[in-house]
Amino acid sequence: MIINAADLDPTSSYKLLIGSVLPRAIAWVSTQSSQGTGNIAPVSFFTVVGRLPPVVSISLQPRADGVTLKDTFVNIRDTGEFVVNMATIDQADSLHRSAFEFDSDVDEFEALGLRKGACDIVSAPRILDAPISMECVVDRIIAMPPLPDHVVWGRVERFHIRDEVYLDNGRIDVGALGAVGRLAAEYSLVDNVFTTPLPQELVEQLRVQRSRRLDERATDYSPIDTAEWSASGSTRTETA
User: What is the pTM of this model?
Assistant: First the structure.
């Protein structure tokens, strides 16, 4: 299959991107509005773009209507700051529910039952129970026309790292985290590590093995095929 990107609409392009760039780290972004309302959103268009100073990048689409700017972006634009938190397996459901489009006057920390942690530099709260949080101030905002998409670069001013995952040699104990990543519109638990080369017989075994589902759904299930999914990264309506 050969697909000409120029022939794609935004939704079709988004589907191909999220199914091809795998696995994607998730920035669990917490912000605060100018009025002091807390907001939380998962952003999987997320990466590192600089080391010194440390700089991270998040890309934000509008809400599911394709026009209205997300509260996360509005808060970042208006306050010049945000926090990137790391989500782990015990927080996966809260992470997912934070993608629902709450009204702008709803404090999402309260709505999701998440505890606020004070930051040192920025006024936005961090997610207290996240094992890693990064306080960020805006370095630049890049508009991505013709769509109302934006790329935000954030300069990391403070790292908050839970003591038990910070090793004496200055690195993170990644195997102890239970990190969660994004696969298309679903999630994946990072529960194995390796260095190369692996035994060839193991490589052959893993090459033909489907990823196992942890939720007992059908092997071909995807939220992309449901009415709740949208090409905004947001979930349209919350279900019971």
Answer: 0.95
Fold of the CATH domain 5-225: Pnp Oxidase; Chain A (2.30.110)
Q: Interior CA angle at 6 toward 5 and 12, to 5°?
A: 55
Residue 24 makes CB contacts below 8 A (sequence gap 6+) with 18, 44, 45, 46, 181, 182, 183
pLDDT per position as a tens digit, 128-172: 999 999 999 999 999 999 999 999 999 999 999 999 999 999 999
Domain ranges of the chain: 5-225
